[in-house]
C-alpha cells in the first residue's frame, strides 16, 4: 500500500543527471518531462546560467511543466507541451531550440 501512494522515481536519476552535466553543460534537453524529476535535478545541477528545455506529450503533465517554467523563468527552464518525437526533422529541432539557445545544446536526457 505504501508504494502505491508514492510517485515513480526514475531509477537512474543521479546517474543520468551526473552524465548530462559532466562536461560542464549549460543547456540540457529533458525529452520526457513526466513528473519533472530529471528537470528539477538538472536545474539544481546546472550552473546559474544553465538552462533545461523540457518536452512532454501527455496533457496531464502540462500543468506541472508550466508551473516549473513559471517558478524558474523561461531563461532557466523552458517547457514545450509536445512530445520530443514531434520534432522529427533536424530543421524542426533547430527552429525550436535556436531561439532559446543560439549556441546549441550540450546534453539530451531521454
TrEMBL record:
Specify the domain of life of the species encoding this protein. Eukaryota
Q: Which InterPro entries match?
A: SAM-dependent_MTases_sf
The protein here is known as Uncharacterized protein
